[in-house]
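Could you show me just one protein sequence together with its fold in token form as a worked example?
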Amino acid sequence: MQFVVVTIRTSEQKPMIYPAVYRANAVERHRVGPIVYDGGIQRGGPTAECLMAVDNAFSDVLAADPDIRKLTRAEADTWLADNPKVAEKPVEQVNDDLRLAMIRTKIAAGIALSQEDNDALDPTSSVRGITRRTRDVDGYFPDFR
């Protein structure tokens, strides 16, 4: 599998112009996982990009177009981290199961939670418990190995 980024252009006549080699039905047959857009045109820009994972042979076909480029896994992670559209939809993750189990026990027993307990439940806090982070390659493409 290979990551590719497709540059999409816009004009007054057409809101989204994909590269000539991009054929939606072929993309659907060869891609693995979602197509992740950066929202560039929606923000008023002249172009947008989308990231997807496709099989190796199809990535060679796509990459023949100058508006499509292959990315390594690390480059795909960077693309996602720099993508404002992805940043709008962070993922929440448990990073301390034991602490959350203790908090549930306190709640069930009717014991008041401490400030540290409340902070552990706040994904914006630095206290271990629940965290919020931008989704990375593994979050979008769990089958990509």
